From TrEMBL:
Coiled coil: none annotated. Gene3D superfamilies: Histidine kinase-like ATPase, C-terminal domain. Residues 48-136 form the Histidine kinase/HSP90-like ATPase domain. Signal peptide: none annotated. This is Anti-sigma regulatory factor.
């Protein structure tokens, strides 16, 4: 099963809409609660990053009997230093995002902690692609 979502950048009032809708679908399919929690956290964190840093983008999901795979693609500024961005507490979020409670610098860490596979590729000036995989045959 495949689904597609578009995410608008800077639309903080709607942040998390795609991950929330996807979570409802997973519940309807009878996916286990721990799997839903893990993929939902990872997808939500990536979705927030698209809103805060990249003026939005797209999310494509695929559910198979073996795994849940989520690809998030934006055309934002890219991540200048991915190693630094992966460090807990590092953030380039705007003042506006921080004032609204976002941008604590834990998003990439939360993604990594809650999925089985995380791949991030980013090109400055072109955007970032995040791939998140959670396998259905194992629970952590």
């Amino acid at each position: 099963m495949k689904m597609h979502y578009d995410v608008e950048g800077g639309e903080f009032i709607n942040v998390g809409t795609a991950s929330s809708q996807f979570k409802k679908t997973l519940k309807m399919l009878g996916i286990g609660a721990d799997i839903i929690r893990r993929i939902s956290i990872s997808m939500y964190e990536a979705e927030i990053n698209m809103v805060i840093h990249a003026n939005g983008g797209s999310i494509d999901t695929e559910i198979t009997p073996e795994r849940i795979h989520v690809v998030l693609q934006d055309q934002g500024p890219g991540i200048e230093n991915l190693d630094l961005a992966m460090k807990a507490g590092y953030s380039t979020a705007s003042r506006q995002a921080r004032e609204m409670g976002f941008g604590a610098g834990m998003g990439l860490q939360n993604m990594k902690r809650n999925c089985d596979e995380l791949q991030i590729s980013s090109v400055l000036g072109e955007g970032t692609r995040v791939e998140i995989t959670v396998y259905l045959n194992q629970e952590s």
